[in-house]
Amino acid sequence: MKTNTRRDFLKTTLALGATATLAAPALRTLAASKPAKTTPASTAKTPATTAATPDVVAIKGGTRAAMLDRAIAELGGIAAFVKKGQKVVIKPNIGWDRDPDLCANTHPDIIARLVALCLGAGASEVSVFDHTCHPWEKCYKNSGIADAVKTAGGRMLPGNDESYYREVKVPGGVTLTTVQIHKAVLDSDVFINVPVLKVHGGGKITACMKNLMGMIWDRKFYHKNDLHQCIVDVLHAKKPDLNILDAYHPMMRNGPQGKSSEDLLTDTKTLLASRDIVAIDAAGAKILGKTPDDIGHIRIAAESGFGRIDLEKLNIARIKMTA
Q1: Virtual CA dihedral for 53, 55, 61, 67, nearest 10 degrees?
Q2: Which residue in 115, 114, 158, 119 sits closest to 140, CA to CA?
Q3: Any idea which architecture 3-31+54-257+288-320 has in CATH?
Q4: Which candidate in 53, 220, 229, 261 could, as Cys together with 175 as Cys, close a disulfide (CB 3.0–4.6 Å)?
């Protein structure tokens, strides 16, 4: 994808621009006056503000770790999600045997920083896993996530065997009535969902809701039945406490695996965070130039009461940082 095409495209999408759909009356614009700095995990504080906690935080322009720090702070700080002694499970997208530069997986810098934040808040343990599509050992290693998690003090869990999963009922599920979910997720006190943003053939986009396919055992069931309904149904069984969307270099073609850096939007440099899994996916769809109502699982999830799709009515904090 050529640079001029990216620029033209970004003018019509979210991209945190002045005319973006997210720039609603409720939107707060906060500009960082100095280069962003990463605060130690145990001392990160919420910026002083009298505004209500935003529904979605959209950060642009800093390093990945600094943007994560700022987003968490805007949502009340890591202590709003993680308490001393709790078990935390982080679910990135680690599905593909790709190096970080291709952005097929969540970037390791985000995961490393998040592990450090959770441990700094007093978590008794922080575990990270994915049920990968490519061989799991290669995905964990070549994504850079395994080394990043280990260095930060967390632990990697495998997801490649059915014995790691436990069957649970899906109350309210339309297509899914039971599902096997990774035991670590079911037994966690805090579940944090951290995908990377990209296009996808069947799902149209991969963001926070679709990333949860990596916490279940039988992904084929989704594809053989109603994919979009199944993506929503599993929320009846397990819903993340926090969603963080890596949109630094969104993949605009050849998703979900990617082939080269030419598949990426390199000017976006964005991170989104929200408790609302529908709102954050709706914002992600906008970044990819898509209408949220046209994405089946986003529309169904909103209709099912799992969150808000009407971005113009939400309190969205738009923050520009300096790397």
Answers
A1: 60
A2: 158
A3: 3-Layer(aba) Sandwich (3.40)
A4: 229
Tell how far CA 94 is from the center of its chain.
12
Q: Which amino acid is at 138?
A: K
How many Cα atoms occupy the beta-carbon half-sphere of 190 within 13 Å?
A: 28
Position 14 pLDDT exceeds 80: no
* Domain segments of the chain as ranges: 3-31+54-257+288-320
Q: Which residues are paired to 180 by β-bridges?
A: 167
Residues 6+ apart with CB under 8 A from 224: none
Asked whether 246 and 106 are in contact (CB, 8 A), the reply is yes
Nearest residue to 308 (alpha-carbon basis) of 25, 29, 54, 28: 54
Q: For helices 108-120 and 64-74, what crossing angle results, to 10°?
A: 40
Q: On the CB side of 4, how many CA atoms lie within 13 Å of its CA?
A: 0
Structure tokens belonging to residue 177: 């009535």
Q: Which secondary structure element, helix H or strand E, spans residue 210, and what is its range?
A: helix 208-211
CA distance 227 to 109: 31
pTM exceeds 0.70 for this model: yes
| CA distance linking residue 11 with residue 265, whole number of Å | 12
